[in-house]
Amino acid sequence: MSGKSIRSGNATKKKGGGIIPLVGICCAVVLVGAVVFLGQENEPEDKRNVVITKDNLEEVLKDMAEDDFVPVGSYETKMSSNWVFADGKSASKNAYVENVVANTHDVYFDILLSDTKERIYASPVLPIGSHLEAITLDKDLEAGTYDCIIEYHLVDEDQNTLSTVSFTLTIIVQN
What we know:
Layout: H1 2-39, H2 57-66, E1 77-79, E2 82-85, E3 96-99, E4 106-113, E5 119-122, E6 131-133, E7 144-155, E8 161-173
Parallel strand pairs: 2-8
Antiparallel strand pairs: 1-3, 3-6, 4-5, 4-7, 7-8
């Protein structure tokens, strides 16, 4: 009889001994899964502008007040759109670019040839209310008519670009 109870005890011991490691393995798997899930970086959502209607106006204004809202900028330019040069090394007879006082940011601009995107002029920073005239190109162009892009860069006080806006420009080199 005592032999029977020992066997019974051993059989019970073996069952109990198998459950503890199994519970430990399950806990380890759950813990590793939680660490992996929580350690993943979530990509930020692509926030889009909301169309404002009379029905959502108050909600949009409330959301804007709660967020770090940066308003979309605008830029007004005063410039001539056809620049004439006597030759490729001379100052233009009529080139004029102004950063008007209605603007909110300093600006600089680049002039690019439309077909190759080669930069042929890089301006200094124009504070609000200032202008450039009698501009000399950085690249000596041969006689001809050139389709160009003038690309304005609106900048903050550290000269970091906030936004860009582009216009077409025609450059005429006479000789």
